[in-house]
Amino acid sequence: MELDSDNNTLLKTGLVITATLVVAKLIFTFFTSSSSKKKRLPPTLQAWPPLIGSLLRFLKGPIVMLRDEYPNLGSVFTVNLLHKKMTFLIGPEVSAHFFKAPESDLSQQEVYQFNVPTFGPGVVFDVDYSVRQEQFRFFTEALRVNKLKGYVDMMVTEAEDYFSKWGESGEVDLKDELERLIILTASRCLLGREVRDQLFDDVSALFHDLDNGMLPISVLFPYLPLPAHRRRDRARQKLSEIFSKIIGSRKRSGKSENDMLQCFIESKYKDGRQTTESEVTGLLIAALFAGQHTSSITSTWTGAYLMKYKEHFSAALDEQKKLMEKHGDKIDHDVLSEMDVLYRCIKEALRLHPPLIMLMRASHSDFNVTTRDGKTYDIPKGHIVATSPAFANRLPHIFKNPDTYDPDRFSVGREEDKTAGAFSYISFGGGRHGCLGEPFAYLQIKAIWSHLLRNFELELVSPFPEIDWNAMVVGVKGNVMVRYKRRQLS
Ligand code: HEM
Ligand SMILES: *[C@@H]1O[C@H](CO)[C@@H](O)[C@H](O)[C@H]1NC(C)=O
């Protein structure tokens, strides 16, 4: 979407103002009075003017701020946002507690409350941790390997169908194309055949309204009577009705499908209770929100890098040729799992461009961390603690030439994602709340890119894309224009 510059400035100003409110809200909601008995507090970011200086710097861009301050303040520091505190834990040496702490110490519920009107009542952040844990178990079960095998067949079919509609040669906005394809695939695997085949236009318009109903201001005031919020609520209501019908007819017919919808319908709580229609709908919406933009953004970055660096494109292509010699045209879960070169190309794109750039928790107990150079800091309870995949993934003591696209850094012998322990590479988070959809995401992106590599010559004709830092899920700015030409690989 093109905006003229006045609108753009207005939009940016609006974003800054709403972001300010957002942070103010976070602050007032989560910080209790700060304890001051402790002696070894982390260094505090100093900024001018006092009181709001650091807040302004934070809002101008958390990643730029981290990049500027890390050399002076080190891997643990506190940013005073007005009179409250956010403490950053950057790098595997100090972030272990962030990832491993139990819910009673570090919780997500407060920081992710704003999702409730989108996901709907009775699910995820609207319920107690004990219930949420069971719902995450439903996710885990719906994403087991035996289920993934079935989803892969649908991913492959969707990719084949989609790209069969491209001509012999032409030019496309790859970003736009991959977004469309991924919503189709996600609908098929997660929401089910009924939605994918019959109701698709309807439902995708409703999801569009849900998406557009999540604004920066929504984080602060999720129930503000804005047109976007009203459309969101109407869409959520309509989706309830649609899914209610689908679930009802599946239950009556007794037919079972291999999709996440079916898994959620059959999921049971420990006490034997079945999921309600409303819970099933909410969990599906949550899955789509977790997995759709993240995956489509990652597919686009992967493509952009492959087209930019011919040597990696050739390496990925050679791998496809070898696999075709071995397996013919067949692509299934196991063939995709053999695509190590492509896997590393995706993983490296995701290292440089994690779509979720800041992870946060509300802290409910005191803890301490010790840095690489042996300094120990006490983090008082009441702080918001945060870590940043976008920054941590580019630390030079973990990743050699961190700003360079180098998929081989993950190869046997180097394995830079592991040498500093489990939390070196955190595009998917890790530990207690690590992404449950990681294997699904890789399979989906590999299904798309193996098809493209096998069937098309591709060339990036627009400049290498920039990062769209302003998006809620950080993605690719502008168009990604690609010239394609069909080919036969043998
Ligand atoms: C490239 C794609 C993806 C990326 C980069 C990604 C990233 C992440 C990250 C960073 C977290 C941790 C959030 C935190 O610690 O606060 C997370 C959690 C989660 N993701 Fe993903 N994700 C992706 C795809 C998916 C897909 C496809 C699904 C489901 C179909 C999914 C489902 C989940 C769920 C359910 C959680 C919550 C786990 C928990 O809190 O215990 N994700 N993801
Ligand atoms: C850090 O916290 C742990 C657990 O509360 C405590 O046992 C330990 O003594 C603390 N370490 C330092 C250096 O204060």
Automatic annotation (TrEMBL):
Molecular function per GO: heme binding; iron ion binding; methyltransferase activity; sterol 14-demethylase activity
Chain residues that bind heme: 435
Enzyme Commission code(s) on record: 1.14.14.154
InterPro entries: CYP450_sterol_14alpha_dmase, Cyt_P450, Cyt_P450_CS, Cyt_P450_E_grp-IV, Cyt_P450_sf
GO cellular component terms given for this protein: membrane
One matching Pfam family: p450
Gene Ontology BP terms: methylation; sterol biosynthetic process
Domain of life: Eukaryota
Cofactor(s) the protein needs: heme
Compartments (UniProt record): Membrane
Transmembrane domains' residue ranges: 12-31
UniProt name for this protein: sterol 14alpha-demethylase
